[in-house]
Amino acid sequence: MNKNIKWYVIISFSVIFLIAYAAYFFTDIGRGLGALGDDDNRIEEPLDNNKLPIPPLLEDKNPEEGKAEFDLKVQYGKTEFIKGYEANTLGYNGNYLGPVIRVNKGDDVKININNTLDEPTTVHWHGLEVAGEMDGGPHQVVDPNTTWEPYFTIDQPAATLWYHPHLLHKTGEQVYKGLAGLFYINDESSERLDIPKEYGVNDIPLVIQDKRFTNNGNIPYDLDMRDIMNGFLGDTVIINGALNPQLDVKSEVIRLRLLNGSNARTYEFNFNENNEFHQIASDGGFLEESVKMNVVSLAPAERAEILLDLSDYNVGDKITLRDANYNLMTINIVEDNNKDIDIPKKLVEIDDYNKDEIVRSREFVMSGMGPMVTINGKQMNMDRIDEKLNLNELEEWVIRNESSGMGMMNSTPHPFHVHGVQFQVIERDGGAPPLNERGWKDTVMVDNGEEVKILAKFRKKGLFMYHCHILEHEDSGMMGQFLVE
Length: 485
Ligand SMILES: [Cu+2]
Description:
The chain is mostly beta strands. Helices cover about 10% and strands about 40% of the residues.
């Protein structure tokens, strides 16, 4: 390169970088780093009697054993999050969020997705191991007024998965407006285990998201420089679409299926009495053993199933689900049920991958600063295949977050998601991963400066994505493609 041009490029990039950094720095100082409940203009009059909405279970249209068929309509909606105000939202078969799709391991499933929006969308089955062309990534565009009919066989253990759009550059907005739903898989283990199973009664779906409400209760997706850098952080949390919801339960063990469905926020879930609970499942299914804990941290897209023992509580007692010290949901004990359930210790058998069988090791380095966030120095290009893999070979992926490499005060964690596979985390920062990360995972938090090693065996063919699940980073191009053949 000509020497003058080279200097011109270096100086130009430095200037852009400094301007971006200044914008980041000054917007943050005044507002606190997206802290919850720090916005004076916020109005928060939740609806009276704000019961936690339980999404409907989607009806299976195929009565045949071993088969299932579902209809999903992607539609515009109006949602009253705040009393007296309507927000413009999106939903599946409704105004906001979607129904829970429940299938059994081994089922042949077909889903008819009708897009009634006047913009394209896609529906990605997050955590499901299906062929690339059924995955619902950015290549499987569902144009307005058309129907996409993916089909697949459920070929993995019981788990709490989810579905959401994955349209290139538009994922953040469509998810934020309400397009997300849970996808449950049942199998013989989930049937056999002595855990709560009554949907919406003691087995509770919880989709947790943060929003930024305008004074008239709307949720526009307007990004400023800070949002593009850190991801969109709201100031108010809603669960299943409700603000400060109330959940009524019996004094028994309850099972909470937590999905962090937020664009960018990571939560530290806990209860106000510092209650001990047991995590029984991670992203891709049950852990080998339940893990006793007081706080569970979930990055965007991560899930955890936890059991909370309320059998010592009395009618009239309340406890609160929190994120750090911020109240999210009140749990009211409204009925006695002195049923003694022992929380099982042993859950399922998971065969650990054998490191001797690793065929290839790959590195994924996440760096840069929004909107110039990259993986291995590259931004997403639909026409470029970044990695080629062979079917059924065990791979080691070393994932590093080097976004602090520029000596910035900026600290950007990146949750790394891989499509079409459930993987095992074998190392976090040189040490063993915590107990609750030793089950099946499809998304793993990689904090600033951290290195995480995972082992994965890809069992489905096709083209898949890996990306940061901070949706604004993904939309900026922090994503790559791999082909399994
Ligand atoms: Cu990221």
